[in-house]
Amino acid sequence: MEDEPLMDNRMAPSPGAGDKMDKSKAAAFSKMMPTSIGWRKPRQERFDPPLYKSPPPEVEMDLTDSARPQKDMPGRRNKIAEKVMAAAFNHSERRQIGKGLVGRVLNRSYRKQRIDSEVKQQLESIEDHRPYFTYWLTTVHVVILIISLVFYGFAPIGFTYTQRRDLVLQANLVVETVGYMEPDNFWIGPRPADLIHLGAKYSPCMHRDEQVYVRLADIRREENDTGCCIRTDNAGCVQTVSSMCSTSFATFAKWSINSGPNNLRRSGPVCGQDHRTCKVPASVKPNEWPDDITKWPICKESFEDSEYPHTTCDLTGRPCCIGIDGTCKIVSQEYCDFVKGYFHPEATLCSQVDCLDDVCGLIPFGNKEKPDQIYRLWLSIFLHAGIFHCILSIIMQMTILRDLEKLAGCLRIATIYLISGIGGNLMSAIFIPYRAEVGPAGAQFGLLACLVVEVLQNYQILRNPGSALGKLLIIISALFVLGLLPWIDNYAHLGGFICGTLLSFIFLPYVYFGEFDRNRKRLQIVISTVLLLLYFMAMFIIYYLKPLRNCNWCSYFNCVPLTEDFCSNMDVRLENDELHPTR
């Protein structure tokens, strides 16, 4: 910093030789030094004020801890608290209706000539809110994703299938090469079966699907014709059909009407249990076991002595539930573990286990013949298919959702978000019932619908509202096109957008321009409420009473099959579906 002259030559002339000075002048000039432009104080005596106030170092060193002045810590804490509260309630970035984050990105502006005193008063009266729901929702999404990855791990990354092969011990006690195709997950997350266990939208878990139960009935009829294949070397036995039991290495035990005077049954026997040797539950009238092994219970305790070979042999195969469609096979435990199935060591028949309950998980069905996990419609909103999926949701929430919540408030935006997500999942469950889908896709398209409705409700004050609406529709159309890729639920997008549009007319704040416009927008609320109720009534009637069973074109709106496996149903595929227990 340049030294500033204390006085110039005109105001304070230099004393001449012989001039008489008073004491004050003499004392002042005694501290001055001559320069080419005047007299200055010496540099070492000049005082520059410090940038901050602090005691001199020598004073700090001379003071003890008890004598040193204490800092005003409570006052500093109060100042910090005041700054935090001021930031929390700072409305300098107030959310402007009709504009917001997307409006700023797309360069929207107001038509000032339409903003009269009444409209200006309405704009100023709209309350600005804090995005508490956004922060809560994002935290829940991240925590649930971390827990799911810790407990279930990762599926293969890709768009189709990954082949798995290994040497596996079969039910015939022979080690054979076994292969299966495991579905990929390009979102970098758990397998489809694990997502269903976590609460994914999967229609067979939510209501009774007749196609699923017709197939299960066919499996039971086939099992009713099976018998016990007992190896001649006493190595074990397995329940199978006669064509799968080689007479060179085993004996096939099958009851008939001529089985003997002590047994007049045709269905059976069953490896590992018999109605005559089971102690709990006992086959006695009126609870006698029927002549249909598919209706036999699991024998929890048997009598020690038994004269029947099929009850004394060691079982080498038991029921295993494979895939997401409830398929059950009698296999070895090693095989079941290899294909990531659910092994049932307590049972001897597939009819004794509920594979659909194993696939669905969560709260067991009240009636195993009637799945009732309809709560998956909202539970799947909080799940994600993987890390990349969750990142996209967080970006959407911390931008669009946060911006809209500042305008509408926590309760209103939460209502729009959740009901849009439920409405989207309900439409998805109708049109693509056998795909496991997770994520807030419907809820996010409900938020996009809010942006569209916001333009429609406030077009009078926006400059070029047609351009603003066109840009939004182009972006939303592009997102629908992306929904044709696998692992993206386009029906949830469509259902969420429809519900979000109606909910936006009901809950979003608006500005009216005259009494006619005010009454018109009030009427919109009533009409939107009625249409929303009709939407859910129609969807539930179709879902429960008139399900779509022969809609071949429905899948093309959700995924375009560019390759054979591009739009697969995410189920496990066994390379060799025929199991050979004894060959």
Description:
With 583 residues, the protein is mainly alpha-helical. Helix content is 41%, strand content 10%. The protein is built from 19 helices and 13 strands. The strands form five sheets. A three-stranded antiparallel beta sheet has the order 3-4-13. Helix 6 packs antiparallel against helix 13 and helix 13 packs across helix 14. The longest helix has 30 residues. The protein starts with 22 loop residues before the first helix and ends in a 9-residue tail after the last strand.
Q: How many beta-strand segments?
A: 13
Unreliable spans are 1-12, 45-49, 57-67, 577-583
Major β-sheet profile: 3 strands, antiparallel
Distance between the termini: 99 Å
Helix count, per DSSP?
A: 19
The Rg value, from CA coordinates, equals: 39 Å
Major sheet strand order = 3-4-13
What's the layout of helices and strands?
Blueprint: H1 23-30, E1 33-35, E2 38-40, H2 57-62, H3 73-88, H4 100-105, H5 117-125, H6 132-152, E3 161-169, E4 175-183, H7 192-198, H8 210-224, E5 227-231, E6 237-240, E7 250-253, E8 278-280, E9 301-302, H9 309-312, E10 318-322, E11 327-331, H10 333-338, E12 342-343, H11 355-360, H12 376-379, H13 387-408, H14 410-431, H15 441-457, H16 465-482, H17 490-507, H18 515-544, H19 554-558, E13 573-574
Antiparallel strand pairs: 1-2, 3-4, 4-13, 5-6, 5-7, 8-9, 10-11, 10-12
Helix pairs in contact: 6-13, 13-14, 13-15, 14-15, 14-17, 14-18, 15-16, 15-17, 17-18
What's the gist of this structure?
With about 575 residues, the chain is mainly α. It is built from 19 helices and 13 strands.
